[in-house]
Structures are given as C-alpha cells and as structure tokens.
Amino acid sequence: MAKNHSAANRGPFNAVISANKQIGQRFYRLSLGFESAGAKAFAKLKPGQFAQLDLADTPLPPSKDIPEDLVDAARRKILLRRPFSFSDVINKDRKTLVDILYRVVGPATLRMTTLSAGDSVNIIGPLGNGFWVPRGKKQALLVTGGMGAGPLLHLAKVLTADHHGIEAIAFAGAKTEKELPFEGQLDEISQELGFSLAEFARYGVESLVATDDGSAGFAGPVTDCFSEWLGRAGLAGKDMIIYSCGPEQMLAKVAEIAEKRNIDCQLSMERMMACGIGICQSCAVECKVNGSSETVYKMCCEDGPVFDAKEIVFSS
Amino acid sequence: MEEAVDISVDFAGIRLANPVFTASGTCGYADELADFTDVNALGGFITKSITLKPKKGNATPRIVETDSGMLNAIGWANIGLDKFIEEKLPIIEKMSAAVFVNVAGESIDEYAAVAEHLAGEAAIAGFELNISCPNVAKGGITFGTDAVQVTEITSAVKKAAGEKILMVKLSPNVTDISVIARAAVEAGADALSLVNTFTAMVIDIETGKPVLANKTGGLSGPAIKPIAVYLVNKVYNEVAKNRGIPILGSGGIRTASDAVEFIIAGATAVAVGTANFIEPGCAAKIVEGIKKYCVRKKITNIKELTGSLGIG
Ligand SMILES: Cc1cc2nc3c(=O)[nH]c(=O)nc-3n(C[C@H](O)[C@H](O)[C@H](O)COP(=O)(O)OP(=O)(O)OC[C@H]3O[C@@H](n4cnc5c(N)ncnc54)[C@H](O)[C@@H]3O)c2cc1C
Ligand SMILES: Cc1cc2nc3c(=O)[nH]c(=O)nc-3n(C[C@H](O)[C@H](O)[C@H](O)COP(=O)(O)O)c2cc1C
Ligand code: FES
What does the pLDDT read at residue A89? Predict the structure, then answer.
C-alpha cells in the first residue's frame, strides 16, 4: 500500500490558458499549456487521470451572465480545489497542451468561464490511475454520459494511436441534444456510416448518440442503446472491454450489463474531493473484497478514479 | 544587515525548530505531503487519528464545502495501530519535525492501549489526545465535553504515555472551554491543542436532507478562524498562562498573518489543517512568513510574541 511518495512531480504547477471556448449552452472547453516541469509531468498524462484546479481567485462572470439557477450558488466564496479530467493532451515544442471539457454547475465552474487566453491557473496533477488496456482485446466500447465524454475522447485518441489491434466504438448519452458536450455533428452520410460525432470521428472512432428525450439519435438512456447494440455484437465477451464515465446511476447500469455478458469493464468514478492526493479520506468508494462478503473503502483520488466494475458496491 | 530571529520554541519541554505544525487528518501518517513540500521545514507534525484496530470510516458524502470552509465527517478512517507501527513508524524515524501521534478510540482502555504501545518509540515526541471528534458515534467528543470524563481519560492516557508529551485536543462544542481545559491540565496534560472542528450541518434544499451521510460534520477552514483565536486567548488567560502550559492553536490558518494572530492570542505553536488541501506547501511558507514578521517588528525571539495581546 506504499503508493504515496512516487517520484513523479505532481506540482503545484501554473498553467497558462490558451483558449476557453463555449461549445454548448453550459459547456466549455478549456485549453491550457504547461512549460518546463509542468510540461514534463503532464506529457505522459493517461486518459482518466485528473488534476485539482485552484479557482478561488478566479473572478465570477458579471451578474447578467450568471444563469438564474446559479445566482445563489455564485455567492459562495469557494475554498477547495476542484477535480477535472482531460479530453486531450498534445505535446509540442517542449510544451504540453491539455484540454478540459467542463459543464457549469456551481460557483467554481462559473468562475472557470471567465478564464481567458494568457490567464494562469494553479494545478496539482496529474492525479489518480487512469484507464488501462488489458492484453488481447479486440474491441473497446466507450460509454459516456453527459460530461463523462472528456476522458473517453482522450482514451479514443490513445487507443487509435497506440493500440492498433483494438477497434473503438463510442456510445454517447445525454438528457437532450443540447446537453451533448460535443462540437459539430457530422453530415448525414457520415451519420449513416455510424460516425455521429466529429470529435470521435477524427480518431476514426464510430459513435452512437442517445438522448433521453429523443432529440438526437437513439431515444432513451445510452445504456439501453448500448445494450441493444451488444445484442447484435459479433464478438465474444472476452474479446471486448467496456470503458465508462458519467453519472453514477449510469455506471451502475453499465456494470450490470458488463457482468451479465462477462465483459471486462472499467469505470471512472466521481466523489467529492478535498485534497485529491490521498490524504483527507473524503473520497471513499465502497469496494468488494475478493472472495468475501466484506467491503473496504478505497480512495477515489488515489486508488481510482478508474475502478474495475466488479469491485464497486453501488448504493441503490 | 538583517537581525537574527529565533523562532524556535520550547513546547512542553522539547525544542521545536519553529512553531508550525500540520494538523491531524490533513497531512497523512508521515511524509505523504513530501511530494509537494519540504516536510522537514515543519516544527511539528501530527498524524491522522490512530485507533487500536483499523477503521473503515463513514459512508459518503464525507465532506461538503461551505462559505470559506468545509464540513468533514470522515469518521476516523485509519489503518490501525499495527499497520501504523509497521509501515509508518520507519518513515517517521527519518523526519526532523517533532511527531505527535493523534490517539483516538471508543473507550478509555482503547486510548490508553494505543498510547502504551507507542510510548517506547524514540521517533515520537508525544501524543495528541483526540477527545473532540464530532463525527463518531462512540468516543471522541463524548469524552471531551464532560469535565469528569476528561479527567478520567487524561489521567489514564498520561499513565500509559510514560515520558512522552501528552497534548489534549479540545472541542469548541462546549459551554465553557476553560472548564474542560482546566480538567485536562489538572489530570496531567502537558499541552493543550485547540480547536477541533465545530459541529455543523448543510442541508440540500432540493431533497430536504442533510448533504453528509453522517448528517452532521465538523466545520473547519477560514470560516472558524476568529472564533478559534478567541478561544485560544480565553484558554491562555484562564488556564494555560499561569500554569505554564503551551497551547497549539488551530482553526482556519492559511497564512503567516493568521499564525501570528494565534501566537499573539496565546498560542506557543500553531497547526495548519484544511489549508494543506489547497496549498500543500503553505505550512513551510508560514514558517518563512513568521520570520519576516519578526524582522519587521524587531522581535528577536518569538517568545516575546506569545500571548502579547495588548488590551486597552
Ligand atoms: C475525478 C473527477 C473528474 C472530473 N472531471 C470533470 C470533467 O472533466 N468535467 C466536468 O465538468 N466536471 C468534472 N468533474 C466534476 C467537477 O469536479 C465538479 O463539477 C466541480 O467540482 C463543481 O464545482 P462547482 O463549484 O462549480 O459546483 P458545486 O456547487 O461545488 O457542485 C455542484 C455539483 O458538482 C458535484 N461536485 C462538486 N464538487 C465536487 C468534487 N470536488 N468532486 C466531485 N464532484 C463534485 C456535486 O455533485 C455537486 O452537487 C470531475 C470530478 C471528479 C471527482
Ligand atoms: C478532512 C479532515 C480530517 C480531519 N481529521 C482529524 C483527525 O483524524 N483527528 C483530529 O484530531 N482532527 C482531525 N481534523 C481536525 C483538524 O486537525 C483541525 O483541528 C481542524 O480542521 C481545524 O483546523 P483548520 O481549520 O486549519 O482545518 C480533521 C480535519 C479535516 C478537515
Ligand atoms: S480527496 Fe482527499 S483522499 Fe481523496
């Protein structure tokens, strides 16, 4: 268990914002660049790893730009860092550029929207384990819900670049079309060929879209869309692997599907985090102990955020 | 030329290189913060609460942020005494800070047993007795809010602790903190640590339920600082000063200015808690900041500052 004290430098680093683009009603993509030690540390960022951003000194948007449902929350003076995972990493000229896809939900993410090119933000990371790729898999199935798309976009890129034997297919879900955190849908021909989302298509990864209200793609939960697809799938369970990130209820459903079909499955979990570095014990995830009815708490920030689906005890 | 400043302090008979500690539960068991900061820059270090057997802790959510603060209800999740001795003590032996083991339990016997097992360890300077945790069903605060029980538990652990320094960590969740402080000192406490967190609650107005699985949690962070400063000053004046008992002050410290405030109020040393989560290097920065303050104020020995509160 002596997993602390890694030689890896995890900061804190200062990153400089290069862009902060609004890509939907409440969705943004923040692009940040690291130099020197920070660049070195983030160059090897694995999909699913995350970082803790200090946004306490970042100003709020002007009150006219604060959505009505967040007016009260915006008043809160924030204290703790906030955890975010990454949707892309690019290494260029000794610099490392990373992207964060985020959704505005409260005081910290509201503040995040005011960051603009040239501003800097203090970051601790990379943190956590990230997704891993077991040997012998032929197909990787990426199931995302809402903001969970970020790390799976990064994973799609890495699978395409480094794991040629594996075909990746994405299943992206959201409540409505407006809440899909992607830029630009593809034309109809591409869609008929199965490439619904440009951001997955650029890695040659097929994607299926599902919305709860049927405003785009499959009408219903993404897990239903995924389940139906699996029913038609040609490969045996052992040749496939499921990667999923999104709301916990969705992850529980994905875990159930994986178990039923005997498919390996990795889930990226979220918990409220104070430190993000394994010290405060706030981010406990209840896990089964092999071969017993007992459970233990593992730390989402340090033992995760990616867990083997078989381990996790979901609260019903 | 800059005057030499002595910020080393005498804390219940031991010499600390400086008056800055990291607080229990916010810095791990040993050198977990070493990746982020020089842990040897600290004067003192307090481990996460250790119980006789490992503890799983409470269900989640265990924390929630509040205005300039946070609530926690971790519930003493810890690796237990045996694993602490096996895995963490060898690391502690190499640390230059004075290390205090925070001791917790459900019964007086459990507290005493943990202290007794560790009393012979040269690497440990002393114990911090956690009788002020608001987040467990048994033990913790139930011992710390009743003067009779404080007397009983302090004298039992004092016996078990042998030559080691016994520091008692006080809860602010009492009518008169000085009554409890006096009971601890009269039962043998060598030092007092205050304050632990304030019992508090956050309600989710959509569900109408408390946010924390434990329903209540302990409030920490900048939000509690002025109350903590007041309580340190009160205990200093009413209990500690005349008896020569050092106080370890804590509650919302994030900067050197915060630390100096506690010292002026009567603290011999200070502990940094919640701030470690946001800025893991802040305790080391506070050490430097205290030195600068002393130079600016022409203070040659930090002793001059302790309890120097001017009145009138
Ligand atoms: C490992 C990890 C990776 C994440 N990656 C992303 C990402 O790529 N994009 C994205 O938009 N969001 C991500 N999140 C969630 C993000 O951290 C929260 O949305 C953010 O902290 C909200 O802060 P706020 O002040 O705006 O809202 P708050 O008012 O603080 O919270 C709004 C809601 O967000 C959730 N939340 C708040 N704080 C945390 C926290 N510290 N940890 C987990 N959930 C929290 C809670 O459910 C809360 O009800 C991730 C969380 C974790 C744990
Ligand atoms: C997440 C968390 C865990 C804590 N765990 C412990 C603990 O195990 N034992 C203890 O005596 N105090 C514990 N504390 C209390 C702190 O040591 C400290 O007394 C308190 O938080 C006030 O200081 P602060 O405002 O600087 O954090 C904990 C505090 C926090 C925030
Ligand atoms: S967030 Fe502190 S231990 Fe995970």
Answer: 97
Is ipTM strictly over 0.90? yes
Which ligand has the minimum distance to the alpha carbon of residue A268?
1
- The CATH number linked to B38 is 3.20.20.70
- CA B60 / ligand 1 centre spacing (Å): 15
Q: Indicate the residue among A127, A162, A189 that finishes a domain.
A: A127
Point out the ligand nearest to the CA of residue A269: 1
Residues 6+ positions from B208 with CB-CB distance below 8 Å: none
Chain B positions in Cβ-Cβ contact with residue A279 (cut-off 8 Å): 26-28, 32-33, 276-277
**Residues of B in Cβ contact (< 8 Å) with A9:** 35
The pLDDT value recorded for residue B312 is 60
pLDDT in tens, A235-246: 889 999 999 999
| Structural domain containing residue A33 | 13-127
Clarify whether residues A233 and A292 are in a common domain: no
Phi, then psi, of A84 in degrees rounded to 5: -140, 145
How do beta strands B269-272 and A218-219 pair? unpaired
E strand spans, A35-87: 50-54, 82-85
Q: Answer whether B76's CB lies under 8 Å from B49's CB.
A: yes
Give yes or no for residue A3 having a pLDDT over 50: no
Contact B12, B193 (CB under 8 A): no
Beta bridge partners of A20: A30
